[in-house]
Design brief:
Elements (H helix, E strand, L loop, with lengths): L4 H25 L3 H20 L4 H19 L6 H21 L8 H6 L7 H20 L1 H9 L1 H6 L4 H19 L8 H15 L3 H26 L3 H26 L1
Helix pairs in contact: 1-6, 1-9, 1-10, 1-11, 2-3, 2-4, 2-9, 2-10, 3-9, 6-9, 7-9, 10-11, 10-12, 11-12
Length: about 260
């Protein structure tokens, strides 16, 4: 079954979507959209370092994404405006990564594959890494769900409930770094934030509870992956952007339906 490249691509997309969607709910609730974008942009520097040291892409991108996320988290409360800090870190890390790639001699690299993803080229090893990372993210979110939710709603409430908001923020940061590292092969660094945010934003329209929003977001993410890959196969379009386009269309349809219901009411 895994000999078919479309099967591997579909399984890889489902794995990433299953992890990114519930994590994206916390990104939306905490208004961390630009934070996720900055972490994703830093991943291209991790790609360059991985290739330079002749190692697997996953540990390099994971390390750089985690360092980036932790740096922003530490600097945020020290007199820097969050949006300014994220803008500086996101664009500078992407620029340094692209420059670093240009210095790699004797190594053939398809830069577009890392910027926009190359899900159709996912191997069995990539699939193992993607599902391993996705399982770890889902396990962490499930284990710390109550604590993460309390810290997101109100830090004072989290303290009163015996949770440490800083620790929960660190766990969320770790989950984000892992998701970025495993998603780079699927949608690329420029579209990872879209896969995090759009399904969660679409699910927010229909959900009544946080748990329902996470479940609906996962469903939308998986549906977008399957439909996007099918559309890419039929119309010969880029797979990663096609997945994001389907998610965006679902977001539009769900919001149009909500606005129509509001007008009728």
């Amino acid at each position: 079954m895994l000999d078919d490249f479309m099967t591997r691509a579909t399984l890889a997309g489902i794995g990433v979507a299953g992890a990114a969607a519930p994590l994206g709910c916390f990104v939306v609730w905490r208004r961390m959209a630009y934070f996720g974008d900055a972490t994703a942009h830093a991943a291209i520097l991790g790609v360059a370092l991985s290739l330079a040291f002749e190692m697997s892409i996953f540990p390099g991108t994971l390390a750089v994404a985690l360092i980036m996320a932790l740096t922003v988290t530490q600097l945020a409360g020290r007199g820097y405006a969050m949006d300014t800090l994220l803008g500086v870190m996101a664009h500078s890390s992407l620029a340094f990564g692209l420059v670093a790639v240009s210095f790699l001699s004797g190594i053939r690299i398809d830069l577009m594959a890392y910027l926009f993803g190359d899900i159709l080229a996912v191997s069995r090893t990539d699939l193992l890494v993607i599902w391993g990372g996705a399982a770890l993210v889902i396990a962490l979110i499930t284990w710390r769900w109550s604590a993460l939710l309390a810290s997101t709603l109100n830090e004072d409430l989290a303290h009163a409930s015996g949770f440490d908001p800083k620790r929960e923020r660190l766990i969320l940061t770790l989950c984000l770094a892992i998701t970025v590292a495993v998603a780079i092969k699927v949608v690329g660094v420029l579209l990872i934030a879209a896969l995090l945010i759009i399904p969660a934003a679409a699910a927010r329209v229909a959900a009544r509870t946080p748990e329902a929003m996470a479940a609906i977001a996962a469903g939308i993410g998986i549906l977008s992956t399957v439909a996007g890959l099918r559309g890419a196969y039929i119309f010969d379009t880029p797979a990663g952007p096609s997945i994001v386009c389907v998610a965006a269309l679902i977001f539009l349809v769900m919001n149009l339906a909500r606005w129509r219901d509001q007008e009728r009411a």
